[in-house]
Design goal:
Stationary-phase Survival Protein Sure Homolog, Chain: A, single chain, binds manganese (II) ion, 9-stranded mixed β-sheet, two-stranded antiparallel sheet, globular, 13 strands, alpha/beta
């Protein structure tokens, strides 16, 4: 099996090492990842300057672009053949609820799926482990087992990516896996008003506090209860139920 690993935290991120190690248990691994942090770049594509991939070793490239650029370049240009799976992560922080709309980690998996390759995004749903000293090594083996199970499914769900969130508890204490839907997240005070060195107002998006609204069956609920959450996501966000009654919406001139 041939696997492509990417992420949005950059080629040096410990989470990527964890993902690669888990992926190696399944087959040959290529890594094509951004040369720097690209969190919250969502599904953006670099159109206005060229990309210059740097080959670090036989199966490893860094790209001066977004996670989406990386996956597109890997599949269309850098890899000798198309991968069987695209894996993204392990993100440094949760990607639950509305996070999936901003996440570069999820976007890398989306790009794999858009190019016709089944994809899995993985996030560690805790605070940044640089600061709390959590070792991701403990998740390598459980993740390898999970990947092995998912990739061996007789039918990987069509037109779907799997968004995995690992609860921030020791691997040995994880209770199992739950298939979930997206929860909801409410940010407060997430825009900080400051002054630049010349006294002019500037705004910094980030920080503040997050409240999760976690109904039963959501990703947030599962992680809170100590389960690995797996949310199957479609790329098509059409509201099918609202495709009726457009006749009266246009008044002929
Ligand atoms: Mn990230």
């Amino acid at each position: 099996m041939l696997l492509l690993c990417s992420n949005d935290d950059g080629i040096l991120a410990p989470g990527l090492v964890c993902l690669e190690q888990a992926a190696r248990a399944l087959g040959d691994v290529f890594v094509v990842a951004p040369d720097r942090e690209q969190s919250a770049t969502s599904h953006s594509l670099t159109l206005h300057h060229p990309l210059r991939p740097v080959q670090l070793s036989e199966h490893r490239w860094q790209v001066d672009g977004t996670p989406t650029d990386c996956v597109m370049l890997a599949i269309e240009a850098l890899m000798p053949t198309r991968p069987d799976f695209v894996l993204s992560g392990v993100n440094h922080g949760p990607n639950m609820g509305e996070d999936v709309l901003y996440s570069g980690t999820v976007a890398a998996a989306m790009e794999g799926l858009a190019l016709g390759i089944p994809a899995i995004a993985v996030s560690y749903a805790g605070r940044d482990f640089h600061t709390v000293g959590v070792s991701l090594d403990q998740y390598v083996e459980p993740l390898a087992k999970l990947f092995r199970h998912i990739t061996a499914l007789p039918a990987f769900p069509q037109h779907t990516l799997l968004n995995v969130n690992i609860p921030p508890i020791p691997a040995a204490e994880i209770k199992g896996v739950r298939l979930t839907r997206l929860g909801r997240r409410v940010f407060s005070d997430s825009i900080a008003k400051m002054k630049d060195p010349w006294g002019r107002p500037i705004y910094w998006i980030g920080g503040g506090s997050v409240t999760w609204s976690a109904g039963e069956g959501t990703d947030v609920d599962a992680v809170r209860e100590g389960y690995v959450s797996i949310t199957p996501l479609h790329l098509d966000i059409t509201n099918e139920a609202r495709l009726t009654d457009s006749e009266s919406w246009w008044i002929a001139p």
